[in-house]
Amino acid sequence: MDINWFHADYLPWLILLFPLVSFLVIVLFTSKNTVLSQVVGLVGIGVSWVLSMLLFVKTVWASDPALGERVYGSALDWMSLGTTTFRLGVLVDPLTAYMLLMVPLACLLIFIYSVGYMRGDAHNARFFAYISLFAGAMLTLVLADNLLLLFVGWEVMGFCSYSLIGFWAHKKTAMEAGVKAFMTTRVADMLMMVGIGYLFLEARTLNFRDILYNEEMLHHLASTDAVLFGGSVAGLVGVLLVIGTIGKSAQFPLHTWLPDAMEGPTPVSAMIHAATMVSAGVYMVVRMFPLLSAGADFHHYDYSTAMVFMGLIGAITALGAAVLALGQNDIKRILAYSTISQLGYMIAALGIGAWVAAAFHLINHAFFKALLFMASGSVIHAMEHGEHHAAENGHGHGEHEEPDGLVMDYVAPPNDIQRMGGLLHRIPLTAITMAIGGLSLAGFPLITAGFWSKDEIIAEAWHGMSHDPFPLFVLLALVIAAFLTAFYTARMWLLTFWGQPRTPAAEYASVGSLRKQWVVWWNKRGWNKDVKLMQEPATPRDRLSFAQMETPLVILAFLAIFAGFIGTPVYHALHDFLAPTLLEEPLKIDFNVVPMLVSIALALGGLALGWWVYAIRPLRVGEIDPTEKALGPGVWQVLQNRLYIDMLYRRYLLRPVEWFAVNVVIQAIDKETIDGVLETIAEAFTWLGEAFKRFNTVVIDGVGDGIPRAIGDFGAWFRQVQSGRIQNYLLYVTLALLALGTLFLVQVR
Amino acid sequence: MDITVESVVFLIFGVLTLGSALLMVTARNLFHGALYLMASLFGVAGLFVLLAAPFLAGVQVVVYIGAIAILIIFAIMLTPQVTAMRGIRTTQWPLAVAVAVIFFALLVSVATPLMGELGVDDFAADFTQENPPDVPADSLVRLGETLVDPQGFMLPFEVASVLLMAALIGAALLVWPEGKAPTPPAEAGDD
Amino acid sequence: MVAAGLFSIGLYGVLARRNAIAILMSIELMLNAVNINLVAFWRYQAPLALNGQVFAVFVFVVAAAEAAVGLALIITIYRRRQSVIAEDVDLLKW
């Protein structure tokens, strides 16, 4: 085949292929050698990134501005179905290009981070294999040109998520969390599969261009009545697909798996819950938006079923998760709930038709959330270091008891922000980058990317609110959530980095930071003379791993600021770039300063409240968190227990099913019935065997032994003829003679 | 059947023979048995005379009675034992009786129909005559001639003599006392 | 008939007498019976041929030989076992 692999039509295949090949190479060949596996993994994703940058450059600058109408892509004939052939292939349209800007880069940075974070872990090779597979699956999903291939990537990512969350398989909590994640998303995936199947039934194809860019198809789907529940085909399929996203992107009510997914290593959390998997859910609905909005004219405030569904769920989730994030003490869990909340934002945005805004926020969120997670990983590493050294020097205890199984309000000590404090002076680079990420999350005005994307969502909601109650509801929810987001972000950062260390572990958490000299200089400069630092020399290895961890942080921080500038109301390059993806021009509203002011107020307000509560008088050892005090112990407890939703699920869903599985399926069906049948058959055959044996012994042996015995007895009896006495013999002779003689006589006569 | 002298004589000798025989086989005392044997043999000799074979009668008396019976008596003398301990009859004697009777019946049933051909009912053999008419007068001479005639019975004659000698040697060997190797007596001639 | 009877009696004796010598004597009886038969048949059937008499002569010879050997045997056995009861000589027994 003479294909120019560098041509944009074929390049996507290479992009998604390299990480997959890395996975295979690591699994098959290098699984014993950590360094080699890491190299292979990095090479895989690195090449992918380079290629996708190439592709991006080509699409953005070198090609047809009307990319939306003439996309790049190529396909293979995969399966012939009677008259048609199902084709699988890759597609590059503006949306894809935009995703390619983010996904490979984020993955690459996380890979680099992982080299440092996972240093010393015995199963490094397996880790890199899995994350390579994961990256490959995500790229497949992004580059797919039809829903089936997307779904394949979706499912593979689900499996990788399970494997990676439960990566430390010896921890029971990790295994439980992995299973929980997989099962919860499975429920959603089942329904999504039904949706896909039904769509194929009605549309006869799953190709994106054929469905989404095709006026007649959309019209057809929107006007055909669905087989259940009334409404149109497009509506039913749309709802089912959205359910898939609800699972994958951890929306209410299927959000319960995400906080527990923090049991996995931090790079996993960063990748899965920032850059890729949860983004995949949103990407899917972004991609399928024409279908979801088919039949409704949302420009004029007529929203389709799927859109209403999305809007409601997204809004509820955004608000609920923000509230829950308030009540967490585990740094990663705060970020987890934050992710859920921000995803709710994106979905709500789609619900009201703000398509470009949703995509914009997706990418920005990926950058700063990955940054935040990785920074938190760095913090946790530092705290673990600190605990270790504290134990050595006689302060506090080294090991801590872990619960056996997932407990809702348990916080592992290294993650507990109540135990931190004062880390600003000890791991300053982390602190600063995390601050940048946090500000972006909160939507700090004008300079952070988060501000621009969040602002746009709010603006769109604002635009619609006066015309319809639906956008109003969404707006209110998002507004309150924005305020809470700023507040909990401030709380998190301040409790972690500000003030004085609250535990010995925090005191010792400075070992091996990247630029110790720089730190020392800065501290000595007069800022904080009363800060006493525990100076311990860092080994070069420590330094390296910290470097590996901190460099990506810097890069992402940079992006967290600058990635936003393409979407401002003034310079709306993104809008122009993405718009051609859709057949119908996405919503574009006029610039209205009011929503912008509102979002500025929300962000600053929340941050200020946080500052006032936590920074002015930093929390000291033994004090109760002011938030806890404010909400009261009852509410606090509820928040700690995550609104008891998990418990509800466990009691009313899981327990009965477990009971059923164990008692009915295993016991009654498997053991009693099937085994019973087998045992009966075995018994019957054994009995038969016994009968044969008896027959054998009695009859056959009887005959077999009897005949010789009879012959022997006869012989023994008969041998007495041989008496040895001549007279007897003579008698016999004579008798014989007589007999013969008589015979002859008779005959002669 | 005429009751002639021959028939009476025949009867007498017949009874003598058979009767002595019977007595012999049932004799308790072995010596008595031997004597009965001799009587029986004597009867047989008489029968021989009746049958115009006087030579054979003479031989019978000399050989059988004179030698063999005496020999038997010698043997009886030499082996005294208490026969009466267990009785004279074997355990199978009823069967032996039956067998003998049946045998007799058999023989009789075979012979009786042929008796007419044998001319046996002609007991009118006149043995007062020296030479009955149908027996050649010189039968004795002829007998002697035949025995040494190469075309006659010379071979059997010689073989018989060898047989006698073998018997002689054998018997001697059998009773030779142990420990001594028997020296074979000098080869007898063909005489 | 006489011969037949004699033979039968002799047969009985052979079969039924315990004493070996008695048996031998019975055998002699049987031989004599045979002789009678031979001579009778000669006399009434072929008096011209001498075969009958010759045969009878040979029977005599054989009888004599046989008596001698038999008695020798008996004496030997008697020497070994002090008994001449035929029933006891059951060496050919199984």
Give me a quick take on this structure.
The complex is a heterotrimer of chains A (749), B (191) and C (94). Chain A is mostly helical.
Tell me the CATH superfamily of the largest domain in chain B.
Answer: NADH-ubiquinone/plastoquinone oxidoreductase chain 6, subunit NuoJ
End-to-end Cα distance of chain A:
115 Å
> How many strands of chain B?
0
| Strands in their spatial order, largest beta sheet of chain A | 1-2
| Oligomer category | heterotrimer
- Using the CA coordinates, give the radius of gyration of chain B: 21 Å
N-to-C SSE string of chain A, H for helix and E for strand:
HHEEHHHHHHHHHHHHHHHHHHHHHHHHH
Which descriptor suits the 3D outline of chain B?
globular
Could you give a short account of the major beta sheet of chain B? Answer: none
Question: Can you lay out the helices and strands and say which pair or pack?
Answer:
The complex is a heterotrimer of chains A (749), B (191) and C (94).
Chain A: H1 11-30, H2 34-62, E1 72-81, E2 84-92, H3 94-117, H4 124-143, H5 147-165, H6 172-203, H7 208-212, H8 215-223, H9 233-248, H10 257-260, H11 266-275, H12 277-287, H13 289-292, H14 305-326, H15 331-351, H16 355-392, H17 428-442, H18 449-465, H19 469-497, H20 504-507, H21 516-527, H22 540-562, H23 573-578, H24 593-615, H25 626-640, H26 645-718, H27 726-748
Antiparallel strand pairs in A: 1-2
Chain B: H1 5-26, H2 30-50, H3 54-78, H4 93-111, H5 115-118, H6 139-148, H7 154-175
Helix pairs in contact in B: 1-2, 2-3
Chain C: H1 2-16, H2 20-45, H3 51-81
Task: Describe this protein's structure.
Chain A is mainly alpha-helical. Chain A has three domains: 1-165; 166-399 and 407-640, no CATH class; 648-723. Chain A is built from 27 helices and two strands. In chain A, strands 1-2 form a two-stranded antiparallel sheet. In chain A, strand 1 (72-81) and strand 2 form a beta hairpin. Chain A is elongated. With 191 residues, chain B is mainly α. The longest helix of chain B is centred in the middle third of the chain and has 25 residues, at 54-78. The model of chain B is unreliable at 121-131 and 186-191 (pLDDT under 50). Chain B has helices spanning 5-26, 30-50, 54-78, 93-111, 115-118, 139-148, 154-175. Chain B is globular, with a radius of gyration of 21 Å. Chain C is mainly alpha-helical. Chain C has a single domain, classed as Helix Hairpins (Orthogonal Bundle), CATH 1.10.287. Chain C has helices at residues 2-16, 20-45, 51-81. Chain C is elongated, with a radius of gyration of 16 Å. Chains in contact: A-B, A-C, B-C. Chains B and C meet through helix 1, helix 2, helix 3, helix 4 and helix 6 of B and helix 1, helix 2 and helix 3 of C.
